[in-house]
Write a sequence for this structure.
């Protein structure tokens, strides 16, 4: 049984309520680092709408400030100018409604997979005892880690770590999932398996998903909306609606429609990449 | 069947390590014996090693001191000094290092004087502490404390500052309070560095206590510790007994660092995987 069938065969665990997706809005957000006289403008007047329940992928040339966007939306950093809104309300710092899956694994190494997953609810004292244990175990089984519950993160493969991290995020019942290049560093095979697995999860629970990547194929395969960023100081170049049908399949990537999206995205990105390349030289 | 094979193989592997360890020590003793007796046997004196008593003589000397209560009192005296200095250094050093790591203001105030005092070798403190502390015992404990303290603090500080910020951010997203961040992320994340600091600090503590004992001397017979044991053997001209004292320290140091390693092993299950 493939991972994909596995995920599909399981009950929908996170479709608990109607309010399981929030919209996220960036309004004229600017951010720079360093002292004023030597400041590095990373974001400049960036406005993006992330519709509730949709999967929006952000692509941009490397070093363009994608991670800064993630940090602002997660609430780890504050914008210099502008606002980050969730369901129309300005956010103040990180909160459990916005879960981040980090670039490299952020599973806590001194906790087992199970302990990592129950970390949030247990700490907040919301759930405990058998109910929490059952929920965590069910989630871990769902992500295909049923036999690895009591292993430490270091004992898991890269793909397993990402899935454990997805489970850890989902148990907090976020309304927004922020994925910061979550599959970077995986080998090609695990990566495409993870993409399919992730899509199944999304198509099942329809949370608002914000997915950052530098891979155009990955972006088109996953996205409802594709936000293409420029070089630093970063602005939004274009937002593409990806109208490939769901549930998606890898074969769709070879369709004429997908090629058209890819051509358009690559053209925009290539020009920007050239600019930053020229600056480097 | 496979299971039995595995256990046999495992026990064989374990044995090989033991066998390897024992044979390496035996070879070392053999080289020592030959080197020490080179003059007698071949008429050629090997520089430096020729004057060292051979292991057989040392062994005889060892058998002589083992029944003596004074020898064991030396052990107890040195061990209790090392432990006092070491434990106080841990009790003060770990929170101090963690505070330096997590609080900018605390670091701003306390790090500069700390960095000025740190390069002063613990032994340079011996004369001053002999003067300032009312008893010899207290000054030795103070110097041993210094030996471990700076190493522990620097390791704790470095370890806590090196914690992956993603762990802290992930925990914050999940609603961690400052209290949670400290107890669930920063402290366990610093544990490996705490144990590194402890192991290195323990080594320095033994170096320092021995030297301090030699300098300050022992009041009554046996009260001087292993350092004084070596020193009085030197004054008494017993070469074999000097070596007995040295080996005793080697064993004592080995026991202390094994204990630290064992505790670290128990406290950090996620580190056992390599």
């Amino acid at each position: 049984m493939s991972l994909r069938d596995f995920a599909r065969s399981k009950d929908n665990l996170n479709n608990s309520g109607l309010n399981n997706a929030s919209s996220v809005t960036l309004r004229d957000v600017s951010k720079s680092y360093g002292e004023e006289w030597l400041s590095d403008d990373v974001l400049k007047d960036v406005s993006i709408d992330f519709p509730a329940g949709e999967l929006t992928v952000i692509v941009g040339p490397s070093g363009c400030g994608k991670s800064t966007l993630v940090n602002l939306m997660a609430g780890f950093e504050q914008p210099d100018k502008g606002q980050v809104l969730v369901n129309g309300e300005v956010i103040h710092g990180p909160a459990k409604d916005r879960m981040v899956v980090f670039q490299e694994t952020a599973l806590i190494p001194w906790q087992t997979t199970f302990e990592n997953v129950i970390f949030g609810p247990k700490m907040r004292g919301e759930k405990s005892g058998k109910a929490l244990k059952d929920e965590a175990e069910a989630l871990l089984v769902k992500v295909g880690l049923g036999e690895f519950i009591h292993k430490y993160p270091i004992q898991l493969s890269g793909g397993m770590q990402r899935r454990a991290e997805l489970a850890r995020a989902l148990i907090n019942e976020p309304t927004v999932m922020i994925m910061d290049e979550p599959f970077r560093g995986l080998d090609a095979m695990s990566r495409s398996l993870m993409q399919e697995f992730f899509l199944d999860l999304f198509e099942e629970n329809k949370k608002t998903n914000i997915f950052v990547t530098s891979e155009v194929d990955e972006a088109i395969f996953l996205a409802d909306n594709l936000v293409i960023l420029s070089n630093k100081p970063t602005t939004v170049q274009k937002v593409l609606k990806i109208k490939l049908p769901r549930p998606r399949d890898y074969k769709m990537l070879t369709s004429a429609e997908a090629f058209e999206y890819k051509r358009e995205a690559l053209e925009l990105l290539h020009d920007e990449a050239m600019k930053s390349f020229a600056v480097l030289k | 069947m496979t299971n039995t094979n595995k256990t046999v193989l495992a026990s064989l592997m374990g044995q090989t390590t033991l066998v390897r360890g024992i044979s390496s020590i035996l070879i070392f003793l053999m080289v020592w014996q030959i080197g020490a007796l080179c003059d007698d046997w071949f008429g050629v004196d090997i520089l430096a090693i020729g004057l060292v008593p051979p292991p057989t003589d040392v062994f005889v000397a060892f058998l002589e001191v083992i029944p003596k209560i004074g020898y064991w009192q030396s052990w107890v005296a040195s061990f209790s000094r090392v432990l006092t200095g070491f434990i106080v250094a841990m009790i003060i050093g770990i929170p101090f290092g963690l505070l330096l790591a997590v609080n900018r203001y605390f670091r701003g105030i306390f790090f500069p004087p700390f960095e000025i005092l740190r390069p002063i070798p613990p032994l340079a403190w011996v004369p001053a502490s002999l003067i300032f502390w009312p008893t010899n015992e207290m000054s030795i404990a103070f110097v041993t404390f210094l030996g471990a303290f700076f190493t522990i603090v620097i390791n704790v500080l470095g370890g806590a500052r090196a914690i992956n910020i993603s762990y802290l951010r992930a925990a914050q997203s999940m609603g961690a309070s400052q209290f949670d961040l400290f107890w669930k992320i920063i402290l366990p994340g610093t544990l490996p560095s705490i144990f590194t600091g402890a192991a290195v600090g323990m080594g320095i503590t033994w170096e320092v206590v021995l030297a301090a004992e030699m300098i300050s001397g022992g009041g009554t017979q046996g009260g001087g510790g292993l350092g004084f044991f070596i020193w009085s053997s030197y004054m008494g001209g017993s070469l074999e007994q000097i070596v007995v004292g040295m080996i005793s320290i080697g064993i004592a140091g080995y026991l202390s660092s094994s204990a630290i390693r064992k505790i670290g092993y128990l406290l950090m299950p996620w580190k056992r995987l390599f």
